[in-house]
Write a structure and sequence with these properties.
heterotrimer, A mainly alpha, B alpha/beta, C mainly alpha, A: ABC transporter involved in vitamin B12 uptake, BtuC, 3-stranded antiparallel beta sheet, 14 helices, 3 strands, C: mainly alpha
Chain lengths: 365, 526, 310
């Protein structure tokens, strides 16, 4: 018996990592979040069952709600899948929110400069600008890491604040719509620069379909390509990668801009889809929530699709309980943080068996 | 002799320790007496380290009992073991590099004590036993042998009644080992018991009074090693007679596979040893062995040859006559190089990945494993299966994770993977370190076969027996400098041992004018 | 540029006020990292500290109680982090991120009812007579109490790490946890203590923001200061006194944006607000460039999971 005691629990290492718990842990985390959520609602004086139904079920009972789920899951999935590529390589881009913002700024700047024109070429070009904006913004921490050894977690996060301040300045200053009654907003994008709606009567736009395609493309990259193999090796054992002749520098300079491009595209989809113009606030923290999505989806593209839908639901649920039960919107953030905690805790089951009580001697492991 | 064979100081009865999938200790019994140097003998993986960790309180036994001076004890941690009077010198030192010797000693003492007092006692104890160390120095400035002395002195400061030494000579030159034996004999004379772990038969026969042999977690016998032959002990340890390694004379064709010319390179670890003005040549059809105590620049040398580190000048490393010092591992592999690094997990393989993926790790440039940027997983799977059958790797299949293999089997897999790339030049570091005797013999056989096919082979090893068994020429690395290579049949253990202590003139005059041994080397000898 | 003594004193005071929360949060993280634990949840712990300090002070009118509760709240958050990373062996980077995300959500949730509530600022602790000395007086002896407390804590941490046995053990655990375990020191217990200290300091830093610096509760009011504190630890190469220097440099950068505008230079406020973030990046780059220096000073076991066989 090789138990290790953690308070009242004992951890016993497994001979092999449990495949079941790799996917069981996220489900357990969701279940625990629901339980604690119910307790929380009860503590706030609400009927817990009604609140949970209002949070997790009500939003899905209308066509509009289902479409909104897609609209919110798309940016989450697209950003998360990019982050997952990085996390697999042990590259911690946590500035996706800033890359999203820069994508919106670059693409938005392009759109505003041609807003009086029309043509089918505007939209694809704007998407390219969005991707470029995000990629370049993410290339900065990549370059600072490879050339100056600067920690990408801190630099990418600092750049998020910079990007948000930049957007704020642009919509308050140079890009403010002169006919906009002094609101900090740009002109509304022309129809040529707006994403077509896929489902009439909802906000489900073309970007959602592109997001799904992007996720599948990353799946192929990770599972089939040699680059995907290099990323995996670099993340698990960088010294083995160096021995094999893979370049950490190359991986970092590929992975960060790639995730930045996906976030930048997501940023453009937000402003060219649901929002329709540039504003100071264009994302309810998608770039940060996507970190949770990536972990909840086990850094696997298919898992991320499911996780993105679930996390999108927490946004809708927060709005729903705010509207119908008068609970603060911040419940969403609370649920999101909680689920990540439970997930990280539940992950211990992949490598350990857990027994309640102190280690017992004389028992076979 | 202060031996007292009436009341054993330490008795183990029926000790059992299980790890996931392994029975590390299977009902082990052991008795150690006062003033006795007791050998714990066994192959790698026989369960020696596990057993002493239990005595030292690092691990808890699943079954069985420990009697200390007749009383049942169960130390829950090293501090409790220390309070009983058990001291241990670890194989991988438990020292803190950034701290001074005195601070290191202070950390291991119970209760707060003044550094000055400790420094003085360190000087006293080291003078008493002839273990010279300066308590003010930082551990990162010390050579490996000196670090071991710190560990020993740290133990002796607590006046232990049982001193456990885990493979102490693996980091020493033969001369340093002799000095250590003197200290241990003196301790035994003073009544201290010593539990001496080793797999080296010769030293056990000159040093120990009693030997307990472990095989696959079980005690297979207890003998007085002075009265039985090395062959008997080996048979007990391995459970079989090992076929002697058959060597044919080298067929050196004269083609130079590898030429290193005046290569200097800084270490990439904070307190590592830099490589200084190293020159060497490996011809086709020969094995050049590089001996040396661990931590004398071997790591940098391997990285410089494999391409993990680039040299300032491309010409300082040549493969098949082509300058490659500026090239990476992949380009060097394309010229016929294969590399077996010292660390099997985390460098030679990715522990979490399958053997199929690990076959791909260094073979991706060959056999159409990668086409147009996509991996042919069927081919890499096939390659892994091929390595497994050809080199007798015991694994559940190509899908097994690298970390699930035993050390010996994983090393056979890595060597097989490298040999199947048909290298004209193979560089291998510590190829049989921590490997059981059967696997070691197979690995030596494979290396000699490759040599006979005309490849040039460079083996870096701290195991002198291994180098004398397979090398055609031997050079010694010390403090980052490399000696001239000499034919293995002309070299003696004494000569090589002295050179490992730094007593040689570097072949290249480009370096320091004096050419004399560095201060570190001198201290080792003093 | 002409400045009278009063302006200089005002600038120095503003600098100290901007530096103090950074210094507090960073010294807590320094101790945690010295023991080998990288806690990226500083921002989250600060926010939770800020909101609990504010809520308690607004309800009870007792700022000291508010600070104590903020420290306790920060420690609770740190305990959660410790349980996951030290107990359940979760990845420290991911758990730290989770702590921050959770802290943002939790503080917003708890603080909902306190948005817009006014709070009287803390009185400054004027040391009699000394604070009346021109220039030197107000600068050195006319600050609010936490400014002195933060300097005292840094002095205490420096003394603890370098002069005490407990500090030696903590450094040893951070440098080589296997060796520390092998010679019988409690790695996990030491780390729990260090992480809890980090939580208390982050909580106090948050309390300073919501009780002294602003003083009010605004969602996400730490605005990245937790992350800047993390960068400061690197900047200081894990040395307490350098940390204080770094915090005051950053304090200087933070107030520069206000004073440049005061001097009539017409730069949009948003662009000036970027300064601390850009300065953080610059500082990180300058320090990290020398990889050997970082490696020599960084605790060798930082971020590594400790799981002894047993």
């Amino acid at each position: 018996m090789n138990g290790r005691s953690v308070g009242f629990l004992t951890l016993e290492p497994r001979a092999h990592a449990s495949r079941h718990w790799v996917w069981g842990a996220p489900l357990l985390a969701v279940a625990l979040t629901l339980v604690v959520g119910a307790i929380l609602f009860a503590a706030l004086g609400k009927d817990p069952i009604a609140a949970l139904v209002g949070f997790f079920i009500t939003p899905l009972t209308s066509a509009y709600g289902l479409a909104e789920l897609g609209v919110k899951a798309a940016p989450l999935a697209m950003i998360a899948v990019g982050l997952a590529v990085g996390f697999r390589a042990n590259v911690w881009n946590i500035g996706a929110e800033g890359q999203l913002t820069m994508g919106a700024i670059m693409a938005g700047g392009f759109v505003l400069s041609v807003n009086h024109l029309s043509g089918f070429w505007i939209l694809p070009l704007a998407v390219v600008f969005g991707a470029l904006g995000g990629a370049l913004w993410a290339a900065i921490p990549a370059w600072l890491k490879t050339h100056f050894n600067a920690n990408e977690i801190l630099t990418s996060l600092m750049l998020t604040y910079v990007a948000q301040l930049l957007l704020n300045w642009l919509v308050h200053g140079p890009w403010r719509d002169p006919a906009g009654f002094n609101f900090p907003e740009s002109e509304v994008f022309s129809p040529s620069a707006t994403l077509p709606i896929l489902w009439e009567g909802t906000r489900l736009h073309l970007g959602v379909a592109i997001a799904v395609i992007a996720v599948l493309a990353i799946w192929v990259l990770l599972s089939k390509s040699f680059l995907g193999f290099q990323i995996k090796v670099m993340g698990l054992a960088p010294r083995a990668g160096a021995y094999a002749g893979f370049s950490l520098r190359k991986v970092v300079l590929t992975v960060l801009p790639l995730s930045g491009a996906l976030a930048g595209m997501a940023g453009f989809f937000e402003v060219a889809g649901p929002i329709g113009q540039l504003q100071p606030a264009i994302s309810p923290g998608y770039g940060f929530t996507a970190i949770i999505v990536a972990f909840l989806g086990r850094l696997h593209p298919v898992g991320i699709l499911f996780a993105a839908c679930f996390m999108a639901l927490t946004y809708l649920g927060g709005e729903s309980v705010q509207m119908f039960m008068g609970l603060p919107l911040a419940v969403t953030g609370l649920f999101q943080g909680m689920i990540l905690f439970f997930l990280l805790g539940a992950d211990v089951l992949i490598r350990f068996r857990i027994r309640i009580g102190a280690p017992r001697p004389g028992k076979a492991a | 002799m202060a031996q007292d064979r009436t009341n054993p100081r330490l008795v183990l009865r029926g000790i059992v320790k299980r790890f996931p999938g392994v029975l590390a200790n299977d009902h082990v019994d052991l008795e150690v007496y006062r003033g006795e140097i007791h050998a714990l003998l066994g192959e790698n993986g026989a369960g020696k380290s596990t057993l002493v960790k239990i005595i030292h309180g690092v691990l808890a036994a699943d079954e069985g009992e420990i009697l200390w001076e007749g009383e049942p004890v169960a130390p829950r941690n090293p501090a409790e073991a220390r309070a009983l009077g058990v001291g241990m010198v670890f194989q991988h030192f438990s020292l803190f590099d950034s701290l001074t010797v005195a601070e290191n000693v202070q950390l291991a003492m119970d209760g707060a004590r003044d550094l000055e007092v400790i420094a003085k006692r360190v000087r006293d104890v080291s003078a008493h036993y002839g273990l010279s160390i300066d308590p003010e120095r930082h551990v990162h400035d010390l050579a490996v042998g000196e670090r071991q002395r710190v560990e020993i002195v740290r133990c002796l400061m607590q006046n232990p009644r049982l001193l456990i030494m885990d493979e102490p000579t693996s980091v020493l030159t033969p001369q340093e080992a002799e000095d250590l034996f003197k200290v241990l004999r003196r301790l035994a004379d003073e009544g201290v018991s010593v539990l001496y772990i080793s797999h080296k038969l010769a030293e056990i026969r000159v040093l120990c009074h009693q030997a307990t042999v472990l095989r696959a977690g079980k005690v297979v016998g207890t003998q007085d090693p002075r009265t039985c032959s090395s062959k008997d002990l080996a048979r007990m340890m391995i459970g079989d007679d090992l076929a002697a390694l058959e060597r044919r004379a080298p067929k050196v064709s004269g083609a130079v596979r590898l030429k290193v010319d005046n290569l200097s390179m800084a270490s990439d670890t904070p307190h590592g040893v830099d490589l200084r003005h190293v020159s060497l040549e490996v011809a086709a059809g020969e094995i050049l062995g590089i001996a040396g105590v661990a931590g004398n620049g071997q790591n940098v040398l391997l990285s410089a040859l494999s391409g993990e580190h680039h040299a300032a000048r491309g010409e300082s490393v040549r493969i098949e006559g082509k300058p490659v010092g500026h090239l990476g591992p992949r380009e060097r592999r394309d010229l016929g190089l294969a590399v077996v690094p010292e660390e099997r997990l985390g460098r030679g393989t990715v522990p979490e990945l399958s053997l199929a993926d690990n076959a791909l790790l260094s073979s991706y440039g060959k056999g159409n494993l990668v086409t147009r940027g996509f991996v042919d997983h069927e081919r890499s799977h096939g390659l892994a299966e091929h390595i497994i059958t050809l080199f007798g790797v015991r694994a559940v299949g190509a899908k097994a994770a690298a970390r699930s293999l035993s050390g010996g089997n994983l090393q056979k897999f890595i060597i097989g993977r490298e040999i199947l790339q048909n290298p004209t030049l193979l560089v291998a570091s510590q190829p049989t370190w921590g490997v059981d005797a059967g696997a070691a013999a197979a690995i030596h056989r494979a290396l000699l076969d490759l040599r006979d096919k005309g490849a040039g082979i460079l083996v870096i090893s701290q195991d002198l027996d291994e180098l004398f068994a397979i090398s055609d020429r031997i050079a010694v690395i010390c403090a980052g400098r490399l000696s001239e290579a000499r034919p293995a049949h002309e070299a003696t253990l004494e000569q090589v041992g002295l050179m490992m202590g730094g007593l040689f003139d570097p072949p290249e005059p480009g370096g320091s004018v004096s050419g004399g041994p560095e201060s570190r080397g001198m201290e080792v000898l003093s | 540029m002409e400045m009278d003594l009063g302006t200089t004193a005002a600038i120095a005071t503003a600098m100290a006020r901007a530096a103090t929360p950074l210094a507090l949060a960073a010294v807590g993280e320094l101790v945690s990292e010295k023991s080998g634990v990288l806690n990226l949840g500083v921002e989250g712990m600060m926010l939770v500290g800020a909101v609990s300090a504010f809520a308690v002070t607004a309800t009870t009118g007792n700022p000291v109680l508010g600070m104590v509760v903020a420290m306790a709240a920060g420690m609770l958050m740190a305990l959660l982090f410790g349980f996951l990373t030290l107990g359940l062996l979760a990845n420290q980077v991911a758990t730290g991120l989770a702590l921050t995300i959770f802290g943002v959500g939790l503080s917003a949730f708890v603080g909902k009812g306190f948005v817009g509530t006014p709070l009287p600022g803390l009185p400054s602790l004027d040391i009699p007579f000394l604070s009346d000395i021109p220039l030197i007086g107000p600068v050195f002896f006319g600050q609010d109490p936490l400014v002195y407390v933060s300097v005292a804590i840094i002095a205490a941490v420096s003394w603890f790490l370098n002069r005490t046995r407990g500090g030696l053990i903590l450094r040893a655990v951070g440098e080589n946890h296997d060796a520390a375990h092998a010679i019988g020191h409690g790695v996990i217990a030491t780390r729990y203590r260090a992480v809890l200290f980090g939580g208390a300091m982050s909580g106090l830093a948050g309390a300073y923001l919501s009780l002294v610096y602003t003083p009010m509760w605004i969602e996400n009011m730490s605005a990245g200061r937790g992350w800047i504190a993390l960068a400061l630890v690197v900047f200081a190469t894990w040395k307490p006194w350098r940390l204080l220097l770094g915090a005051y440099l950053f304090g200087g950068v933070t107030i520069a944006q206000l004073h440049v505008q005061g001097l009539g230079v017409n730069i949009p406020s948003q662009l000036m607000s970027m300064l601390p973030y850009l300065a953080t990046i610059l500082v990180l780059v300058l320090i990290s460039r020398d990889a050997t220096r970082i490696r020599l000073n960084a605790p060798a076991c930082i971020g590594k999971v400790f799981h002894p066989e047993r």
